[in-house]
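Input sequence (355 aa), recorded before submission:
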Amino acid sequence: MKRAKMVLAVLALAVMTVMSYSACALAAGAQGKGYVIGFTDNYNGNTLHQQQERYFQEIADQMKKDGIISEYHMVVANQDVATQVSQIQNFIMMGCDAIIIDPTSTSGLDGAIKEAYDAGVKVMIFNDGPVSSPYCYQLNVDCVANFGYLTEWCAKKLGYKGNVIVVRGIAGTGYDALSYKGITDVIAKYPDMKIVGEVYGEWTSTVAQAKISAILPSLPKVDLVCGESGDAYGAAMAFESAGLPIPLIYGGNRGEFLNWWMKENKKNGYETISGVATPWFSAAALFLTIDLLDGVKIPQYMYYPMDLITQENLSKFEGISDTEVATSVYDLQWVRNTLETQDEKANKPEMVKDK
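Predicted structure, token format:
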């Protein structure tokens, strides 16, 4: 893929810290004043979504102080497409200048997004996309490349053979569909690798643990668990609770898994890899939206990079809280240099309809 090199760059990571932005740094990037922003999250049942909401709120609060926005509204759709459609329609009626959406569906929001477009409201999709509507801007994650990379690393470590459990995310989202493709495309290349079980873990360790525990008694020996982030620790606990050898599991940068990995490595040499497009993308989506409202020309389709943690840099995260996601944090200039310079034609997802 043309963008794989950018998406899979190994970044210098930082455990989440409270960010502060000076008024002048923010104001320098915003020409307009008093925007009203609506934000609807797919759901907030895992640490990544909770953290992305905190990042969004922190930046939005500072923008309110600086007069860049006059108000913002945050709601959660709780994985329900109809609820999110209603939230988008409410934001339009409330007079929002822009709506930022972590989508519940690939195509189920298309009508509401078109309503916003027709009303002159800018729409920014991020994280759980892409969506098929051409009437919005999208900050997506290259799930095919990212999860293909993680799966390929594990396949090589196992000598390209073994039984695999695939832990999916939330059905109906573009993120899940493309992550699954990235995982299964790699496994399909190797005749001695076989998927012996699939569950939906909802990107959450407790759900993943329960779902994996339910199928383990019926499975042969498992050598690898491939997830879509947020499920790795739950997978490890499912095997531990069952008294079974813990297979190779790649992580999604959650503190609980990183802490478990560090402990296991010291105890028995357990080695793996971890990667995810981290929750600062909510702040990036807000910065992009403000630039868009200010008349800055930005790409319609952009990709947010994956933070990669290896055995070599794992020790940097000693002391991370179980409830945090290891995250690189950036600023407005990084957004402009890294995201706003991308090639929108190369980044356009195949599932997006033409106008």
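Checked by second reader. DSSP finds 13 helices and twelve strands in the chain.
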